[in-house]
Amino acid sequence: MTRQNYTFTSESVSEGHPDKVCDRISDAILDAFLREEANARVACEAFATTDCVVIGGEVGLSDPDRLTELLGGVEDIVRDCVRDIGYEQQNFHWQTLKVQNFLHRQSAHIAQGVDRDGAGDQGIMFGYAVDETPELMPAPILFSHAILRRLAEVRKSGAEPALGPDAKSQLSLRYEGGRPVEVTQLVLSTQHSHESQTSADIRAIVEPYIREVLPRDWLTDATEWHVNPTGTFVIGGPDGDAGLTGRKIIVDTYGGSAPHGGGAFSGKDPTKVDRSAAYAARYLAKNVVAAGLARRCTLQLSYAIGVARPLSIYVDTHGTGEVHDSEIERAVAKAMDLTPRGIRTHLNLNRPIYQRTAAYGHFGRVPDADGGFSWERTDLAEALKAAL
Predict the structure, then answer these.
(1) Which helix (H) or strand (E) holds 225?
(2) Alpha-carbon distance 287 to 292, whole Å?
(3) How many CB atoms lie within 10 A of CB 93?
(4) Annotation marks residue 156 as catalytic
(5) For this structure, is 168 an active site residue?
(6) Annotated catalytic residue, options 41, 155, 174, 248
(7) What pLDDT does residue 56 have?
């Protein structure tokens, strides 16, 4: 029987965290190429450290001349990202940092499999949904994101100028009867502007916004707060710690509440099943729960390079299903074309919609009018029920 009473912890990091700076840059470059051509190929990695950002990977366009022109604009993209995040500190400033660009044309050996509509690589991808929040996301990661997103809003608006871009949050939620009921531990570390500011000073700034975000009855007299527990946090971002694209895959997904495949998302165009099939798996799992077929659903897809159809589909409803898991597996296969091309078409992924995914999670977001976060729609629920 599934455990009903326990404490579970998830963490998030802000858009100014060194790894998230790199994710943002990689996805901004991806969007620039997709804006130029819907079938652009991008596998872009970024590395950031003191006063320096290094870009590498492979890209492809049908027009070689335009490819050369876009590569020449990469430095401006990097600086725009760093400026928007808010870095204007002495050793990491959007105007003065050095940008090194080592992007090159995509390998023909990789392209040949994708050009035949196959998967760009082998791999396993997981999707997950649970009915403990309206977003059908695990509460610990959803609210860890929400805290940092709110702090970023008040920092950028000028309401709280003492806050810096680099921050981390962590929530330990106590579950009772399988539902979150209380925050037992809350950790918030945020970069700030003056060494004279104490942990108590920072807590006084952030606590009202945290209370604004969390359900009121979750914070109790027993909740333990750890705000900037090490003290001073003035040196932050890539100057304080190096960053790399793709190092926050659990933050990007379900906060550890569900399995994760081997691949990160940022900087990869949607022909890469690491990204597109993970989005499809979330879409399917969410629609299974939205359709009332289960209260909780984990769904796995697997692929082989150059092969279009998924090798396997696996569903686990953790004992909450209204029908057998194998029936849901068959319904999923009927309701959606799970070839890489089918996924891209169904979710309309060949568009510049990825920079916005780089911080505060790829899942549990509100679908945008322009098709961003299309994998968060619940428009497949009726088709799944019909397939059963």
Answers:
(1) strand 224-227
(2) 9
(3) 15
(4) no
(5) yes
(6) 248
(7) 98
The predicted model scores a pTM of 0.96
**Residues with Cβ within 8 Å of residue 367, at least 6 apart in sequence:** 373, 374, 376, 377
388 residues of the chain, pLDDT tens digit each: 578 999 999 999 999 999 999 999 999 999 999 999 999 999 999 999 999 999 999 999 999 999 999 999 999 999 999 999 999 999 999 999 999 999 998 865 455 455 557 787 889 999 999 999 999 999 999 999 999 999 999 999 999 999 999 999 999 999 999 999 999 999 999 999 999 999 999 999 999 999 999 999 999 999 999 999 999 999 999 999 999 999 999 999 999 999 999 799 999 999 999 999 999 999 999 999 999 999 999 999 999 998 999 999 999 999 999 999 999 999 999 999 999 999 999 999 999 999 999 999 999 999 999 999 999 999 999 999 999 8
Residue 20: active-site member: yes
Active site residue 382: no
Q: Does residue 19 have an active-site annotation? A: yes
Sign of the CA dihedral with 213 first, then 215, 216, and 218 last: negative
Which tokens go with 48? 């950031």
Please report where in the chains the tokens 């009772």 appear, as a residue: 176
From 19, 160, 252, 316, the catalytic residue: 19
**Residue pointed to by tokens 């029936």:** 327
Query: Residue written as tokens 């911080």?
Result: 359
> Which segments of the chain does DSSP mark as H helices, in order?
18-36, 64-72, 74-85, 108-115, 139-157, 199-213, 249-252, 273-290, 325-335, 340-347, 381-387
CA-based nearest residue to 237, from 164, 293, 169, 299: 164
The residue from 31, 274, 316, 376 that is catalytic is 274
How many other C-beta atoms lie within 10 A of the C-beta of residue 36? 16
| Residue of 247, 249, 308 whose CA lies nearest to 273 | 308
Closest CA relative to residue 365, chosen from 24, 179, 137, 131: 137
The amino acid sitting at 161 is P
Give the chain's length.
388
Tokens 């319904």 appear where? 331
Please calculate the CA angle 126-121-68 and round it to the nearest 5 degrees: 120
**Amino acid symbol at 337:** D
Q: Which two tokens stand for residue 305?
A: 């390079």
Report the greatest alpha carbon distance in the chain.
Answer: 63
